[in-house]
Specification:
By secondary structure, the chain is α+β, with helices and mostly antiparallel strands. It contains 17 helices and 17 strands. The strands form 3 sheets. Strands 1-5-6-12-11-10-7-9-8 form a 9-stranded mixed β-sheet, with helices on both faces. It has a 5-stranded mixed β-sheet with strand order 14-13-15-16-17, with helices on both faces. The protein binds histidyl-adenosine monophosphate (HAM).
Length: 436
């Protein structure tokens, strides 16, 4: 009979293990995101991984909705694993945090779940740092979200990243004027998000849009470029007769002016740009690097979501940075983040009788903030030193009878292959100020 204990298990498709080096890199990027949050005044909140299906499904758009890990819990509630943070933040702002003074600047960091087709940079469990700025309808707020995204990309060491920016108000402004219901608009924008412009146009046509509008849309989806004022002028000319769309272009222009006065960014404005999520009402943007054809970050303005969840009408804008995609981009650009090398120490007793002393000295060093790995394999000094060498441990403390009788140990600088006798009370200082 098969012994169930002998069975080996594989990972579930779309999931990954992060081994120490990758885990360290993921956490380092999280640390950078937390630092950016501090610099821009964002406070971290922690929301649950499991939320009600209804909340998450409300405005995420067909694409994400169809890919949710949704199930009934044992109490019969329909729940899902969060595919993004924005719905949870909007829920909080509509309920528990409804009386908080505005603006509210909130940060979420954690794992998200989407049943996407696994491929390079696309996983079913992934990580985001998500920033939301709630309570302001002003272009300064949109500009801040773009600027902090730039700061994060810069601080992790990315090179050659670029922003793609558009405004859903432009296309929606045109489609609303043509009498298209929100549902048909959503479907058309979903198709545009996937760059299926022909299908989008035929959907718009079937929904009753005029020939004039179709010609306009055909022209519109081709308007893009990095000469910002030229692109904006072309857009303005095209939508002259569509008041809401015209105002949307103006709003985009205001935001871009604020951004470019504050920082020099690589920006492409794309008039036919759409994003899969349905809650956007204003500017939308994504960040790309030339080495990958997937976005490293995505965001935009969503002025009606909080209200939809029963809160006060509350304008909001935000962004989510794909932490694992940033990791991938750094690897592709051969610009890996480096941990600020801490001086670690290995403590080795020369005999079993000194194990207790080795532990005591290790605790003293840790108390001084020095990371210590203590020998726990019962190896002889030579073997343990070999191991320290293999791991690249810069310092080794050898605990021996003779030195100990004088309240001292041997401190060995592994790189220089030099050693000296150091009093225990001076050990931490000697390690910190080394080499000696
Ligand atoms: P999103 O564009 O769906 O926006 O996701 C943001 C980022 O998460 C993407 O640019 C990508 O880097 C990463 N991401 C998404 N799906 C995957 C995946 N399957 N594997 C790896 N990384 C992935 C949002 O989530 C919005 N909530 C952003 C937002 C915040 N808008 C306003 N506030």
């Amino acid at each position: 009979m098969e012994n169930p204990a002998m069975k080996t298990f594989k990972m579930v498709r779309g999931m990954r293990d992060f081994l120490p080096e990758e885990a360290e890199m993921l956490r380092l990027i999280e640390d950078k995101a937390r630092r950016i949050a501090q610099l821009y005044g964002y406070k971290e909140i922690i929301t649950p991984v499991v939320e009600s299906y209804e909340l998450l499904a409300a405005k995420t758009g067909e694409e994400v909705r169809a890919r949710m890990y949704a199930f009934k819990d044992l109490g019969g509630r329909k729940v899902a694993l969060r595919p993004e943070f924005t719905a949870s933040v909007a829920r909080l702002v509509a309920t528990t945090m409804r009386n908080e003074p505005k603006p509210l600047r909130l940060l979420c960091i954690g794992s998200l779940y989407r049943y996407d087709e696994p491929q390079k940079g696309r996983f079913r469990e992934f990580w985001q740092s998500n920033f939301e700025l709630i309570g302001s309808e002003k272009p300064e707020a949109d500009a801040e979200i773009i600027l902090l995204t730039n700061s994060l990309m810069k601080s992790v060491g990315l090179k050659n990243y670029a922003f793609k920016i558009g405004h859903v108000g432009v296309l929606r402004g045109i489609l609303s004027r043509e009498g298209l219901a929100e549902d048909a608009q959503n479907r058309a924008l979903q198709l545009m998000d996937k760059k299926q412009y022909e299908d989008a146009l035929s959907l718009v046509k079937d929904a009753g849009a005029s020939e004039k509008c179709l010609t306009l849309l055909q022209k519109m989806v081709k308007v893009r470029g990095s000469n910002i004022s030229k692109v904006l002028n072309e857009m303005k000319k095209l939508v002259e007769k569509y008041k809401e769309a015209y105002e949307a272009v103006n709003n985009l222009a205001e935001i871009l002016e604020l951004v470019s006065e504050a920082q020099k960014l690589d920006i492409t404005v794309d008039a036919g740009f759409a994003r899969g999520l349905e809650y956007y009402t204003g500017i939308i943007f994504e960040v790309y690097v030339p080495e990958l054809d997937i976005a490293l970050a995505g965001g935009g303005r969503y002025d009606r979501l909080v209200e939809l969840f029963g809160g006060e009408p509350t304008p909001a804008v935000g962004v989510a940075h794909g932490i694992d995609r940033i990791m991938l981009a750094l690897q592709e650009q051969k610009a890996p983040l480096k941990f600020q090398g801490e001086k670690t120490v290995m403590v080795i007793p020369v005999s079993e009788a000194l194990n207790q002393e080795a532990l005591r000295i290790s605790e003293i060093l840790r108390g001084e903030g020095i990371p210590v790995e203590v020998e726990v394999m019962g190896r002889k000094v030579a073997k343990a030193l070999e191991d320290a060498n293999r791991r690249g441990t810069p310092y080794v403390v050898i605990v021996g009878e003779r030195e100990l009788s004088e309240g001292a140990v041997t401190l060995r600088n592994m790189e220089k292959k030099e050693q000296s006798t150091v009093k225990i009370e001076e050990l931490a200082k000697a390690i910190r100020t080394g080499p000696h």
